[in-house]
Write a structure and sequence with these properties.
The protein has 306 residues and is α/β, with parallel strands linked by helices. The protein folds into 3 domains: 89 residues, Orthogonal Bundle (Arc Repressor Mutant, subunit A), CATH 1.10.10.10; 102 residues, D-Maltodextrin-Binding Protein, domain 2; 95 residues, D-Maltodextrin-Binding Protein, domain 2 (3-Layer(aba) Sandwich), CATH 3.40.190.290. It contains 9 helices and 15 strands. The strands form 4 sheets. Strands 7, 8, 9, 12, 13 and 14 form a 6-stranded mixed beta sheet that branches. β8 and β9 form a beta hairpin. The longest helix is centred in the N-terminal third of the chain and has 28 residues. Belongs to the LysR transcriptional regulatory family. Keywords: DNA-binding, Transcription, Transcription regulation. InterPro entries: LysR-type_TF_proteobact-type (IPR058163), LysR_HTH_N (IPR000847), LysR_subst-bd (IPR005119), WH-like_DNA-bd_sf (IPR036388), WH_DNA-bd_sf (IPR036390).
Length: 306
């Protein structure tokens, strides 16, 4: 390999990191460079290759068609560099770096944010970037180190660690029930304002109940639907209606009486499993390994309802 070709390598790594962190500023921060230095290296790489790799704006960057092709190869170079860094960190016993974590909003706010405070106390040199959003995230394309996923997993090359499972409950506030009455059977919900979780991909507006009499499905209606389960719980606590929710996402709302559970004579089905997912790599970064180990030890105890 000629010296001229070797000159490409640092710029390719930097290009991959710009995409990984979503901006020139992000790549600069985590590469120990100024933003202007990152911009100059990117421009020099584009000039050498004779193509534009990124469409830049003041807030973010977007890959061009040529950039998408070269990015896949740049990621291989980045992975090789990171493998060397991982081996070096392991030899030195040092845990540091930038850790990108994806999680749904409800689980993230109730469980993950408090745990990350504990994690940072143990590993202060690890910067955790937590992405809270209820959408499917491609770990490889979006350079996610660890994702917390809910539901049954399709076959993939990702490694999965089971952390727990959801436990369903139908709840309302004492204030709402005092004003509107307490449903005694599922069909009574048709006379109530039911709060619905809805995002761009799905709508949870059919509630399924099981009893000795069989299965009963209720198409609930209400004045509010939300794409954030935490906001849905807050609305229920504010006397706005009845909610179907994972009890583990309620915090201390049941213990403190802000919400009460109703229709407890009916089975609501098995809750969805919760997993930590991370890409399979020849050399797993030590920051990823300690974070996954930390979740295995500290996340499961928070799943107190089964």
């Amino acid at each position: 390999m000629t010296t001229k070709r070797l000159d490409y390598l640092p710029a390719l790594v930097l290009f991959a990191r710009i995409v990984q962190y979503g901006s020139l500023s992000g790549a600069a921060k985590h590469s120990g460079l100024s933003r202007s230095a990152v911009s100059k290296q990117l421009s020099a790489l584009e000039e050498k290759l004779g193509v534009r790799l990124l469409q830049r704006s003041t807030r973010n960057v977007r890959l061009t068609e040529a950039g998408k092709q070269i990015h896949s190869e740049a990621c291989r170079v980045l992975e090789a560099f990171e493998s060397v860094e991982t081996l070096s960190d392991e030899m030195q016993g040092e845990v540091n770096g930038y850790l990108k974590v994806s999680c749904s909003t409800g689980i993230g706010r109730v469980h993950l944010v408090p745990l990350i405070k504990q994690f940072n106390a143990l590993y202060p040199k690890v910067h955790v970037h937590l992405m809270l959003e209820d959408r499917f995230v491609d770990l490889i394309d979006e350079q996610i180190d660890v994702a917390i996923r809910v539901g049954h997993l399709p076959n993939s090359s990702l490694i999965a660690l089971r952390l727990g499972e959801m436990a369903w409950a139908v709840c309302a506030s004492p204030g709402y029930l005092a004003k509107n009455g307490t449903p005694k059977q599922p069909k009574d919900l048709l006379q109530h304002n039911c709060l619905c979780y809805r995002n761009g991909q799905s709508s949870f507006d059919n509630w399924l109940f099981n009893s000795n009499a069989g299965e009963e499905r209720i198409a609930i209606k209400g004045a509010l639907s939300v794409n954030d389960s935490t906001a849905l719980v807050q609305a229920a606590e504010d006397d706005q209606g009845i909610v179907w929710v994972d009890k583990n996402s309620l915090g201390d709302a049941l213990e403190q009486g802000r919400l009460v559970q109703i229709l407890q004579d009916y089975a609501l089905g098995v809750g969805y499993p919760i997993y930590a997912l991370y890409p399979a790599r020849r050399h797993m970064p030590i920051k990823t390994r300690v974070f996954v180990d930390f979740l295995a030890e500290h996340f499961a105890p928070r799943m107190r309802y089964k």
